[in-house]
Amino acid sequence: MSSLRATQPRATQSSPTHSSEEELLDHYPEFSRLLIARLNQLIPLQNQARANLDEQVMTSPGDDADISVMDTSADYFLRLANDNQQEILAVREGLERIQKKTYGICDSCENPIAIERLRRLPTARLCIECQTAAERSTAVAFPGARPKL
Fold this sequence. Notes:
mainly alpha
């Protein structure tokens, strides 16, 4: 397929870890629906997290204990808002990649990503092999670090 990247050899048959390019294109409407549905879930969560953060910041503390609780709550809602924002960006990038017909191609090895992996994690940018390798290298370089999917 000329619209998908063709710089490295690709899996030509479907397997548990890789899909064919034709299969990916056939499933683009399904993936679009999944990504849009997730975006519709995330936007209200993001708005609520921001509202909670605003409430925490605008509330006047009573004493030192209240300040500590408010700081902890504000940190929690800030992290939640940031996490939601990162996922919203990943979903939007997925939708853009569908339009460009590059969705479902591993950013690392450029092989097609398995259909089942994309169904379970529509924002995946790495095939399972490359994701596993990335997690292993993160675990070696930063023991105890949590890998990003």
